[in-house]
Amino acid sequence: MPRYLILQDPGHNRVYFNASLGMATAELSVLCQSRHWPAPTDCELAGIRYLQFDTPEPLNAADRLAIAQLSASYALFSTDGKQLTPEPFGNTHLIEDKISSLQKYAGKTNEHFTRLMINMARYALEPTVDDRPLRLLDPVAGRGTTLFEALTLGMHATGIELESRSVHETQVFFKKFLEQERIKHAHKRQRVAGKNKQEAVFAEQFSFAGDKKSLAQSPQTLSLIEGDTLRAAEFCKPNEFDLLVGDLPYGIAHGNKGQVHTSRNPVELVASAAPGWHRVTRTGGVLALAWNAHLISRQALAEPLQATGFRVLHHSPYDQLIHRVDNAIRRDLIVAVKQD
Ligand SMILES: C[S@@+](CC[C@H](N)C(=O)[O-])C[C@H]1O[C@@H](n2cnc3c(N)ncnc32)[C@H](O)[C@@H]1O
């Protein structure tokens, strides 16, 4: 049986890297499960840690791409037990990985963790009949880390974000990125809800592709909706998304009468938004949400999701993802499958 070793990407965040071995193993194990490979392990060679996995056959091109797209992957080797041989990764998609590390701002979700969230969700998907690109919604998109990670994986991405400044900055950044990378694209602003000017909700819609013909026929898309995620079912079509992935707001703000709060208790937010999220996700589609487990238990978050018709995955490795971000935040990920 061929044996492979993955060298973990050290990234730029030491706290995350130190905490990430368990998460990286969990992420690789859902990929192995989806391919019916034996469960992976980890090992240390000359003081450097690796993720180790065996496959019944040598890796094919699709396997190599899937390995390359794991959040932890930095380099791949095959081994005969004595020596390591460097192995190529698969081809990447049009939008390069670097996109999510270009911007730095307060409140940004670590891009490695964001990639892991998407992978945990997509390997829990029930298979589709065709192999069209997946469609992902981040219902609390911030300045777009999940959306950009989804684009690097070849998906279509849609984000809903309450703060107009974040939406504006994401749109300006992405347009500039497409121009600098000389990627063929089109951009329009489209009304997605609201009968009149005052009530109008707009989406910034990008389509892009490697060449003119693909841009006309089968472009990849990014849509940024400036609005309240509680209204997701008004902005998006029923069953539109395969994946719903996001990093929930971290603060708990209790409303005083007369004051407007953009941030709420994440449980309240999830309880109010879940029916709409359920509506816009296809049956068998998967939701993955990160939250601060320091403040809110897994059970408290699972209840409103289950009550709405999501089946929460509590078993291993979905229960292995809690990790320390800083003194105030212990981040965890809840993954759930949409039932009929
Ligand atoms: C943790 S941040 C997401 C950060 C994002 N992953 C990034 O890296 O840029 C959560 C976001 O949820 C947004 N948010 C909070 N309540 C919302 C609501 N009701 N509808 C839409 N977005 C909301 C906040 O404005 C904030 O940008």
Automatic annotation (TrEMBL):
Pfam family, any one: UPF0020
Record-annotated Ribosomal RNA large subunit methyltransferase K/L-like methyltransferase domain positions: 132-288
InterPro entries: RlmKL-like_Mtase (IPR000241), SAM-dependent_MTases_sf (IPR029063)
Protein name as it appears in the record: Ribosomal RNA large subunit methyltransferase K/L-like methyltransferase domain-containing protein
